[in-house]
């Protein structure tokens, strides 16, 4: 196993997923990278087919997600892991890129496993480093009961988020009567912007962006 330094995170991000057989050969030979946040890209890529089978996803607006460079994808979520999983699969299907979802739980084994699959800690520093390295970062809004509403934006992360393009996403069950028997629908929207000029280092600009991205996600949910 090779631990990749923070200034080499791009090497893991840029490389597209390997064919499964080649990835297995490298893993058995001990030649696989793990970045400082814990991402094991080979393991994450091998898990995608199984996850895609368990969580069917219908993608709309995938052209809004950039094919390269840093960006923050902001989405709603209910309690549990289904929305973040569907969001990551939708990003992969639209771009072939891995999504670094913010919110790795501080729980033994579970936290380590989610980090192996690409999750980040819920800290401004982790988000800022990942964005500077060119990653796609997924930020779920606060969970809502019965998956209604957009949730509260993560104000503590906004100083890092405002330095990258922000793409809103609405994640909803695709089955009848709000069920997920037919999978999930993930709709991406155009960039969240402010009407006036802003300084990304200004806390007031970060607060305005938080309100703007929550409103965009809420509006997208209303139209589903």
Task: Describe the secondary-structure layout.
Elements: E1 2-3, H1 9-14, H2 20-28, E2 33-34, H3 41-54, E3 57-60, E4 71-75, H4 82-95, E5 99-101, H5 110-116, H6 124-132, E6 136-140, H7 158-161, E7 166-173, E8 184-188, H8 203-223
Parallel strand pairs: 1-2, 3-8, 4-6, 4-7, 5-6
Antiparallel strand pairs: 7-8
Explain what this protein looks like in three dimensions.
Residues 2-14 have low confidence and may be disordered. The strands form 2 sheets. A 6-stranded mixed beta sheet has the order 3-8-7-4-6-5, sandwiched between helices. The protein has a two-stranded parallel ribbon with strand order 1-2. The protein has 8 helices and 8 strands, in the order βααβαββαβααβαββα. The protein starts with a strand and ends with a helix. It has one domain (56-223). The protein has 224 residues and is of the alpha/beta class.
